[in-house]
Amino acid sequence: MSALAKLARESTIVLEGDPDRLHVLIDGSDLTAEIRLPDASHAASVVATLQPVRDAVVDKLREMSRSGGVVMDGRDIGTKVFPSAQVKLFLHASREVSAQRRWQEEQERGRNVSIEEVRAEIEERDRRDREREATPLVKAEDAVSIDTSSLTLDLVLERALEIVKARS
Hints:
The protein is mostly helical. The chain is built from seven helices and five strands, in the order αβββαααβααβα. Strand 1 (13-16) and strand 2 (23-26) form a beta hairpin.
């Protein structure tokens, strides 16, 4: 565990580009595509249960925000990383819709997986994230909840912008 915490503390993470073409560089390597792969998502959820690693990641995220306002997503951004954020949104969808959306993404990536496998992966990750001791997945008390189950991406964005404008 100490090796993972050391790696998390010493790695350099840089975000480059505009919001539509953002690249994530870790120690100089562009890992934008790799961090969205199922194995990376699973590993992140497992490693996030380790408090020393979690602490190092929280420090990195806070460091990244020092140059100005940021928009971040994550399972403890509004409760642990930025508990005093001006605007907090808690996006959620039904399990069936979440599974369908993730399955579609996997198909587009060329990953041959059943929707049942995708649903099981999502349920396992959600369970692990809710039950972890190191900043479990919970909705911040002051977060605005948006059920995206029946909304298009454009409608979710429209709703989020309405909330941001109302709180600014």
